[in-house]
Every structure is written in structure tokens, then in C-alpha cells.
Write the C-alpha cells for this entry.
Amino acid sequence: MLEATTALHWRSGFVGIKQWSAKASFVKLGRHLKSKQVKGYSMNIKDDMVVQFNYTLRDEKGEVIETNEGREPIAYLHGHDNMMPGVENAINGKAVGEKFTVTLPCTETYGQRIEGEAAQQRVSVKHLLGASVWKPGMTAVVHTDHGQRQVTIVKVGKFMATVDVNHPLAGRDLTFDIEVVGARDATDEEIAHGHAHGVGGHHH
Ligand code: ZN
């Protein structure tokens, strides 16, 4: 029922995206890549590639909201709606090794804020993930048909909670520092499934 009013331009975002280990068959920065570039070869990101990137997310004042610094790069299958559209568009066509900064309107990241009662949904407490005791103002994760979503607790009873379905970052202009650190062609199976497999990806 949550899904009905959250048709935002925001899917799982970075929440719940699995981290990749540094191994795997990615083209790594360094001598190997440079020698390939000298020969006129460069790997530009396009659909059906598994892309690995690092990011730092900043608010309007330049304050860091979120970063994967010190952790494994994010990895996803490009061109299959696995990443928020603004980030995917910004990465499209970039080369492995490129670093860039892009400021995106909310419509390309976590969506516009839904105001008033339309933003509130009743959810069974057992579907709230992230804590065992809930209080107003806390952020919970819920599973929807479109993947995991972050919601904010408005009030909570014994069995049911009222949540605000706006992502905590909805309505904000956000700046991303992005470094594309790896890319490889996806396998036929990954393309058929619509997500990345392998180290850090889906295992099934
Ligand atoms: Zn799969």
C-alpha cells in the first residue's frame, strides 16, 4: 500500500545497494588502464555494463551527507533502473577513472516532497526495518515493490505506525562528487535479471 503514493523518481537509491569487494574483474585505475588508453582504447559507460563508483553526497551548503569513503565502491548494472536517474545520467558516457561533480534537482534524486496527508501512510509495525522500538522522527526502511524505501515515523502504536513516505532527502538539491573506478560488460544472465551478479552483487 505504501507503493501507491511513492511513485517518485527514486528507487532504492543508495539504500540497500550491496557493496562490492575490491577484487572482481573490473578494469582498475593505474598502469593497466593508461596503457590501454594510449592505444586509443577507453571504456565509456553505457547500457549493460556493470559500473563501480565512489561517491560523496553534499547538501546545498557543501556539508557531507553521505559518502562511501573508506568502504567498497558502489556497483550496479547501468541502464536498468538500478540507480537514481540523475546519477545514472551523469555517469553515462564517462570513462573509467573520471572524477566529476554534479548538482541534481530533487526530481532526479529523491523526488519532490509530498506535502500534507498524502505523505502519510499506515504501515504494520512488523514491516518497519532498522530498529526494534520505534519513536516519532526515527527513519525506518520498508520493502516495497520498487525496492527498499526510507520513511520517517510520524506516530506509532502497538501494531500499526503512521509514516511519512518522503525520503529524508526529498525536495533537496544535492551535489554528488563521483569517481568512476571500474566497469565491465555485464553477462547475458545479469542483463536478463536486470542486476549485477558476482562479488558483492546478487547471489542466487
Ligand atoms: Zn540475478
